[in-house]
């Protein structure tokens, strides 16, 4: 297990309450998305002049998003007080490596080593084993109460709360894989010959099934849907992944409903019992926001809705029906959220839920630029920004990378069950003469068929999945990281002998 302990740096003379200096000029609300209308359609508002680089910011969460927020504050010259609160008692580390490199990496991928981000050095106070349990938004300052009872008051709070694994009631005996300690426990128990029963064939379930099978374990994966990754990729694409399990030496049972979970067995709705030496619950994750219910506007899955700059959105403007929590605008202007706990407005993809590694990596930068008054319009199209005299802002499509069962997957964008799927290459595994395959998720409108001069159908691409085709990843990333929607000639886009960029219209 990992060595734990709070790392605390506090200015001399401070008591139990870390008080804000109140020199930070509170930001005013930037343009936001109203309904389905992107912010670029609202009246242009010139950004405010840069605010004083003093005051105080509390970053709640010490994962990748929290670490990137602290780093961005300092890189943009913020010299005020920065406090970061964590829950695991250790410094930030790269979480995806826990499943992908369970047996090849014996220690966490510390961000201080991988990315040079040292939150202990950058923050004035780093309390890495004292998580937040209460938030008082206030109107003049934000106050966070921690598990130890300490109160931290600041001018602005950035919520980088991350996510937590879903473990339904009655599944307490099942293990999960979310933290470095979880990985250490699994690594110790998954010796050759161990029988692992994994509930869920999503990202984590598939990745762990692959590495455990390769390590000599006997793996059974139970999936409620009819195909792996059905919720993430759709049933059609998920169907092409079924054979991967048998090829990797794992047993996959789809369409299985779990009724009872024990430490070494799982009972199914049809009466069968699947026996093992340990059981893993890998049925997804939810935003770690339960403690905020009734305080902030949360959507039904517990996500915090934010605008393109990361500021918590007023429920009367941008939050969907079914949200909880109502705050005055004067309080919301001091609250930001990034990473897995936030659903962020995108001019191209619409509301984008957290859970994408790229969101934790990239979203803190525009959020910090907005709260410091450097740039409050990060989602505006580049031509609008040029008219306003603003520098270009890199755009980043939602991105997931997975190594599972001997295959590499890269997903850009946001697939939907309503999208039409077309392919470059052969997903069935037949001889196509080309390496790997690519699935394009097209948005189609009933009764609306656009064609070009050659009579080829035109369509809007909302997501692209790249499977075992490393040469396609770079070009696809470049095409999807645009500030406008991607439109293609479908016939050209599905021809693997042609470059995908040549299909763009």
Automatic annotation (TrEMBL):
The keyword Flavoprotein applies. It comes from the Bacteria. GO terms for cellular component: cytoplasm. GO terms for molecular function: oxidoreductase activity, acting on NAD(P)H. Pfam families: Pyr_redox_2. The keyword Flavoprotein applies. This is FAD-dependent oxidoreductase.
